[in-house]
Amino acid sequence: MILGHSHPAVLDAVERAMRRGQLLAGQHTLEVEVAEALVRLIPCAELCRFGVSGSELVQAAMRLTRAVTGRTLILRFEGHYHGWFDNVLLNVATPVEQSGPREHPELRLGSAGQTSSVLGDYLLLPWNDLALVEQLFAERGGEIAAVMTEPMMCNTGAILPAPGFLKGLRGLCDQHGALLYMDEIISGFRLGLSGA
């Protein structure tokens, strides 16, 4: 879809690939070639893992951050979309009157049918306010496994990061032993070949 709806070059490439095989049980040489290309193109990528959907890969990233750090809390931001699974569909489009105070927004489930038990796994702040992130890390930095963010808010409005915001997140994560997870399922390759 990044290249346009039903672009002839894409359809031709898909047809050629499908004639070579459609379901392969193990790794395929094309998987290795794509992984090597991604690692070359994306400056921070050292390894590559493939999945079926962005929602699935968000789950893998959260599990990895918790395994590496031994911590459970993940800081996320209002309005950011990290998939539709029950444990991450939170605060994507919360009405302002239900958001709570700006300094301590309330975590909200995204739809009926989700269980509130997942709310204890996350911390929530407004996007683009580094001072609030610094304050939270000063209070709870030793509990935070990761900061999960879109590098540019895309799902609920195209909002650029404030100058220095992403760099500040990187520094805080490094200082407190947390991981920084850039969710680029929407922005990846659309904003630049090397990602946002």
Mean pLDDT: 89
Roughly how much helix do the residues carry, as a percent range? 25-40%
Number of strands: 4
> Widest sheet: strand order?
2-1-3-4
Assign the CATH superfamily of the largest domain.
Type I PLP-dependent aspartate aminotransferase-like (Major domain)
What shape does the CA trace take? globular
- The fraction of residues assigned to DSSP E strands is 5-15%
CATH structural fold name of the largest domain: Aspartate Aminotransferase, domain 2
Which stretches are poorly predicted, pLDDT < 50 over at least 5 residues? none
Q: What is the level 1 CATH name of the largest domain?
A: Alpha Beta
**How large, in whole angstroms, is the Cα Rg?**
18 Å
Describe this structure in words.
- This protein is of the alpha/beta class and 196 residues long.
- It has 2 domains: 1-50, no CATH class; 52-196, Aspartate Aminotransferase, domain 2 (3-Layer(aba) Sandwich), CATH 3.40.640.
- 33% of the residues lie in helices and 10% in strands.
- It has 5 helices and 4 strands, in the order αααββαβαβ.
- The protein has helices spanning 8-20, 29-41, 54-69, 130-140, 165-176; strands at residues 73-77, 122-125, 144-149, 179-182.
- A 4-stranded parallel beta sheet has the order 2-1-3-4.
- Helix 4 (130-140) packs parallel to helix 5.
- The mean pLDDT is 89.
